Amino acid sequence: MRLDKYLSQATGLSRKDIKRLLHKDLASVNGVVTRDASLKISDDDNVVFQDSDIAAPRPRYFMMNKPYGYVCSSDDPTNATVMGLLIDEPRPNDLHLAGRLDLDTTGLLLITDDGQWSHKLTSPKHKQGKRYLLETADPIPESAVEQFAQGVQLLNEKHLTKPAELEILGVDEALLTLTEGRYHQVKRMFAAIGNKVIKLHRDRISHIVLDESLAPGEYRELTEEEIHISK
Ligand code: URA
Q: From CA 109, how far away is CA 93, in angstroms rounded?
């Protein structure tokens, strides 16, 4: 990471301010004073700024219980946003969602500033399951289990959906686990078999299960075990 970004993340100062302070010879890397804002800093480097040791900024990981009616973006002209529910988090613009939910979907959202981590969770290549609890307008036939396991053809898509696991819980209630995240995928899969999803809630992504103590709109940091992705 560049020195100005590293210092900006660690101190909360803007990169413009950091550059100004670098020109006052206030930073050293491994004992050598530097004004080079673009100098690449690695975890092993010893960075001192304004006479203090500056530890590498730690990536942040949160889970949120998304409330109904909130939009998954940082800015929306009409609806309240999930990013607006973050309270006093420094550098909010660095945070992003690892997988979005529709306005009318509730449940588990993961928020981070670690792009590699969110890629591992969301890319179909890594086959991390996302589990949804859903309710439908019409009864769910037993045959849907096999259809979803084989893959279904979504409207305006070239390829069948990847194998998905459907567990029928009741006449019109089921758990569906997907390893990909196409646009409105759960709703479109049920539309493809002539049914309609009327309630949708995500309760799990990979090994990370929504903490039931979180009320809608609340969030917390992930634990070390939750952050760790095994494959
Ligand atoms: N599939 C959908 O249709 N909607 C969501 O919010 C998530 C998955």
A: 17
Q: Which of 100, 104, 105, 154 to mutate for ligand 1's pocket (most ligand atoms within 8 Å of CB)?
A: 105
What does DSSP say about strands 105-112 and 197-205: parallel, antiparallel, or unpaired? parallel
Residue 227 CA to ligand 1 centre (angstroms):
23
- In angstroms, how far is the first alpha carbon of the chain from the final one? 25
Tens digits of residue pLDDT in 173-200: 999 999 999 999 999 999 999 999 999 9
142-150: list long-range contacts, CB under 8 Å, 24+ apart: 142/168, 144/168, 144/174, 144/193, 144/195, 147/193, 148/176, 148/189
pLDDT digits over 108-150, tens only? 999 999 999 999 999 989 999 999 999 999 999 999 999 999 9
Query: Could you give all domains of the chain from N- to C-terminal order, each with its CATH number?
Result: 3-53 (3.10.290.10), 61-227 (3.30.2350.10)
What is the model's pTM?
0.84
Q: How far apart are CA 60 and CA 101, in angstroms?
A: 20
